[in-house]
Design brief:
14% strand, alpha/beta, single chain, 7 helices
Length: 223
C-alpha cells in the first residue's frame, strides 16, 4: 500500500493524515474483496525498513495501528473477517502486542475472508526465521535435508495459499521485500494510484486483468 505520504504532500498535509486516509481505504478494499469471494487478502502495512523513517512518523503509524485494531475488531466479526498479523512483533510495544493477540483471538473463528496485515515484516526476514524454526524443530538434521516442502510450514503465512495476484500502488514497479517466497509465481499489477486513491473499481480492474492471465508456472503448456 504505497503512496500515503505523497498523497498528503500533494494536499499540503502532514504525512500522518496521509496514513490515516490510507487506513480508511483499507475497510473499502477488504469489504470489496469479501463481496467478490476473495478468500485471502494480505496488506503490507509496515516493513522492517520502515523503522528508518522519522521517529515522529513511526510513532504516528504505531498509534494508527493501535487505533485500527481497537476500532475495527467488531466490524471484522460482523463481516466474517479473520485477522492475522505477521512479522517480527517483538519490536512493538507490549500494549500493541497485546492488542494484536486479542484481535487475532477474537476473529479466529471467522471464515468469510482472512485479512493478513504484514507489520514489521520483510520477505528476507520471513525466510530466515523459517529456516531457523526448521532447524530448532530438527536439531539433529543437517541443512542438506531441508527442502522447499519442509520449509514451507515454517513461513509466517503457512496458514494461507501462495500469492496469486500482487498489487503495488503508488507508481513503483518493485516488490520491496514483500513475500519473496510466497509471491514466486504471482502475477504483478502495478498502478500509479496512490493508496488512498486506490478504489474498489481499480481493485476489480486488477482482478479482471488477473483473470485473463495465462498462468503456466514455468510450464510451456497452455490451457
Amino acid at each position: 500500500m504505497d503512496g500515503n505520504r505523497r498523497w498528503a504532500k500533494k494536499r499540503f498535509m502532514p504525512a500522518a493524515l496521509g496514513h490515516a486516509a490510507g487506513a480508511k481505504q483499507v475497510r473499502n478494499i477488504v469489504q470489496t474483496c469479501a463481496e467478490m469471494g476473495v478468500p485471502h487478502l494480505s496488506l503490507f502495512a509496515f516493513s522492517t525498513e520502515n523503522w528508518k523513517r522519522p521517529t515522529e512518523e513511526v510513532s504516528s503509524l504505531m498509534g494508527l495501528f493501535m487505533s485500527y485494531l481497537q476500532k475495527e475488531v467488531d466490524s471484522m466479526n460482523t463481516n466474517g473477517v479473520r485477522l492475522k498479523v505477521v512479522g517480527d512483533k517483538n519490536r512493538f510495544a507490549p500494549v500493541l502486542q497485546d492488542l494484536i493477540a486479542r484481535a487475532e483471538e477474537q476473529t479466529a473463528d471467522n471464515t468469510r475472508i482472512t485479512l493478513t496485515v504484514c507489520a514489521n515484516y520483510g520477505g528476507r526476514w520471513d525466510m530466515l526465521q523459517a529456516a531457523q524454526a526448521w532447524q530448532q524443530a530438527h536439531p539433529g538434521q543437517n541443512l542438506q535435508a531441508l527442502t522447499e516442502e519442509a520449509l514451507a510450514p515454517y513461513l509466517s503465512t503457512a496458514y494461507a495459499p501462495e500469492v496469486d495476484l500482487l498489487i503495488r500502488t503508488g507508481g513503483e514497479s518493485r516488490v520491496s521485500n514483500f513475500m519473496l517466497w510466497q509471491a514466486a509465481y504471482a502475477e504483478m499489477f502495478f498502478t500509479d494510484d496512490l493508496w488512498p486513491d486506490f478504489s474498489p473499481a481499480r481493485l476489480k480492474q486488477a482482478i479482471e486483468w488477473f483473470a485473463g492471465r495465462d498462468r503456466r508456472f514455468g510450464s510451456s503448456a497452455t490451457l
